[in-house]
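Repro case for the chain-ordering regression, as requested:
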Amino acid sequence: MLREIRTAIIVLALLALITGLAYPLAMTAIAGAIFPKQAAGSLIERDGKVVGSTLIGQEFQDDKYFHGRPSATTAPDPADSTKTVPAPYNAANSGGSNLGPTSKALNDRVKEDVDKLKAENPSAAVPIDLVTTSASGLDPDISPEGALFQVPRVARVRNMPEDRVRALVTENTKGRVAGLLGEPRVNVLALNLALDAASK
Amino acid sequence: MTAIGWIHIILYCAIIAALAKPLGWYMTRVFNGERTFLSPILRPVEAGIYWIGGVDDRREQHWLTYTVAMLLFHVGGALIIYALMRLQAVLPFNPAGQSAVAEDLSFNTAISFITNTNWQNYGGESTLSYLVQMLGLTHQNFLSAATGIALAVALIRGFSRSSMRTIGNFWVDVTRCTLYVLMPICVVYTLFLVWQGIPQTLGAYVDATTLEGAKQTIAVGPVASQVAIKILGTNGGGFFNANAAHPFENPTALSNFVQMISIFALGAALTNVFGRMVGNQKQGWAILGVMGVLFIAGVAVTYWAEANGTTALHALGLTGGNMEGKEVRFGIVASSLFAVITTSASCGAVNAMHDSFTALGGMIPLINIQLGEIIVGGVGAGLYGMLIFVVISIFVAGLMVGRTPEYVGKKIEAREVKMAMLAILVLPLMYLGWTAVAVVYPPAVASMANAGPHGFTEVLYAYTSQTGNNGSAFAGLTGNTFFYNLTGAVAMFVGRFFMIVPAMAMAGSLAGKKSIPPSAGTLPTTGGLFVGLVVGVVLIIGGLTFFPALALGPIVEQLASNAGTLF
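-- result from build under test --
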């Protein structure tokens, strides 16, 4: 028995060092050398400052920008650390709403958003991704329909022709991988950066 | 439901079936102690571990010694995680300055990772230092997976050997599995994931200034190396709170597809290892066939339910399925498929929030875990879980014709059936028992995030997932309370070890039996009749056990949802 315990401790310690330190540290070094951009978090810089990550959604409220999906992420309440407050697109605390299909709170929230969007653009059907929160709360994408839905508003506020804005949406639309996997999508941050560049 | 969606699903199944044979061939060589193409590099490391640890790799163990070695190994693993979490504030690799984790949460997490559950009461990026993620979690991701595979192989040896006292050497099986199977795949896999966009850095969280001028702190870390083994080892514990839904854990539809493949790859290959070791690969294909039938049925229901959406959404004029708690880049089909895969295996990683699934769509993941995660299952755990059901099925068939049942040349007698029943009964005792306690204990009820039947389902799912060592959640439930941390840890522990110990006892008694050649009266266990029999037994035993609980949760909720009732 004592022999078994000794063996257990040694084998565990050796395998822990191999799998828990040698492996992740070696992978950090190799990945950093081959794919430095991705390994650091696919960060985007504009005028020398980090404005975000390609993969992480951020909050847009201004009418001149395309908006992402609603986000259910939270942050600790500054007044009372045992509670949390809504903090959309908090990239240090990911999570979804976790509201179920028969939740009244969910239904009220969706209805409010639907009404708001209908008032903004009565001519098109409201795309479902614009009124539902994502699983991570950090979804960087919206559907192409979700982007096209917002074109009239963005064009009006920016004084740009709708066709020009629509063309930017099309340029920033990505299809399914190999025509099969996933769904067509538009990266909101990339689209807004393109929009800013185009209206300069 | 769309044609592209179904092609996606069929392509997935085809790839898994195609991978089973080559992977099974390689793994059989590894566990038979034969040379592989990696031996020139890895054999010196392996021999070094045995030399320092005092392991004689030619000496095999009795099933009891094997099991005790496994238990000691786990106690050590739990102590490492617990100590690292409690001490993380004063240890290196903590750029975010995370403080020590509370006792009950550390305890729950330690049990969670050694049992291959990876239940997330912790928040990942908001709770843990990089050192805990690497030396605590990444390391146990490897070892709990390696242990599961080792145990399955030991049980297979029980079936394949004749009149022997031993079932292998635990230290050799775990070391070889880690070095020859898991590690090489993970090295390549990590690089693929980084290429797709998963971070792999020891640098601090990044502060960005958004286009609208707000500050956004972006959590990063050594993510890819952990995600690789989390998925391949069917562990499922996320680096981040949102798990595989987080764009940094699963950035693209391609990374998602490969992750789904790697959840099933090793588990499916083990059925082939089984076939090879008992001398007839068809035995393995029959088991994979049983798994396939149950799997496709589950996918069809969940995909249909999610694509259909809910009455409440339709009333608001919204079409396109239920997108609450799902990511745009995955959409309905990849989210539904992932949910069924992760709960068929004991993975528990999620790329969409199961809590927000439609009632029926979310019921399938729940059922998958309640059946014992035998549809491919956790690496190793799925195979021994399925073999336990096979033993019961063979026994039932034997009763019908009045003969002593046999399977792959071994007589199935009272001892094996008792052990199988023990394993099957203990699981519902845990998840139904603790659910019953929780729903009458007011502080536990207060943790429910949703009202009505959905709240009940959240609790049932929590204990089911922990007992089944799955780790996925109806995550609205506030699980990080003293009550849930403690009772959940008990459920995980019992769910793992009260399954393993009977399985090992069965392995020991089977190994000691003589192999008998099949006769005219032997039930063939490679054909459609056998597949149908096992599917039937699984559904009947499962249905009798948990159908009443489902009726109180998802079934009544679906009826309410159809009627447009909200809570």
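Ordering looks correct now. The longest strand of chain B covers residues 206-209.
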